[in-house]
Design brief:
Helices cover 40% and strands 19% of the residues. It is built from 6 helices and 7 strands. The protein has a 5-stranded parallel beta sheet, with helices on both faces. It has a two-stranded antiparallel ribbon with strand order 4-5. The longest helix is centred in the last third of the chain and has 21 residues.
């Protein structure tokens, strides 16, 4: 089985370190034999999560598109930046909207429970986004995702990447290889993929 893995970054800023980390993950996963889909949350804009808005207008179509994407993959890899010691509002808002979905056109659709997910973080500072990744791990575990243990946290993001886009540090390259290998193994074992 060739696992299908969805890769996304929690920032849409031009040159974002989380985006560069997601690019590294995409390349490594493909090199290890996965079928990789790389998306940008910029292509799935969502209003701020608001239950009054949901009551008046329903769940936005972009949330359904993301839910279907997650459901149709064996695993997800998320690369988060750190904003004020936690995960960014764009990523949290996306997670929250998709969590509101339980069916699609009358058919059950629960994209999160049992879905395998791997995590990366990055920041400009020395702490490499570890507070954000801890918070993200907690949130994703709470909604029923299977968060694997290996993770990659990239410090000093402005200096971390070669011009080619690869990590400069061998430690980060090895860490990404281990994360991707583990994600692929778990995806094969625990796939909850639903075709849409």
């Amino acid at each position: 089985m060739i696992p299908k893995i969805l890769v996304l970054a929690g920032s849409i800023r031009t040159g974002a370190y989380s985006g560069k980390t997601a690019d590294c993950a995409q390349r490594e996963l493909a090199m290890q034999g996965a079928d990789v889909t790389r998306i940008s949350l910029a292509d799935y804009p969502l209003p701020l999560m608001n239950e009054d808005l949901e009551e008046e207008q329903g769940i936005p179509e972009n949330a359904f598109k993301l839910a279907r994407l997650i459901a149709s993959h064996d695993a997800v890899l998320i690369c988060t930046p750190e904003y004020n010691g936690s995960l960014p509002p764009l990523l949290k808002n996306t997670i929250d909207w998709v969590s509101r979905i339980s069916e699609d056109g009358g058919k059950p659709l629960k994209p999160y429970p049992g879905k395998v997910v791997g995590l990366c973080s990055s920041s400009e500072g020395h702490f490499a986004g570890v507070r954000a990744i801890m918070h993200l791990r907690h949130v994703l575990s709470h909604i029923g995702m299977e968060v694997i243990s290996p993770q990659v946290s990239v410090p000093r993001g402005g200096e971390a990447f070669e011009e080619s886009g690869d990590f400069k540090e061998e430690r980060l390259r090895k860490g990404m290889a281990r994360l991707c290998r583990t994600l692929i193994e778990h995806a094969r074992l625990l796939s909850t993929r639903v075709e849409h």
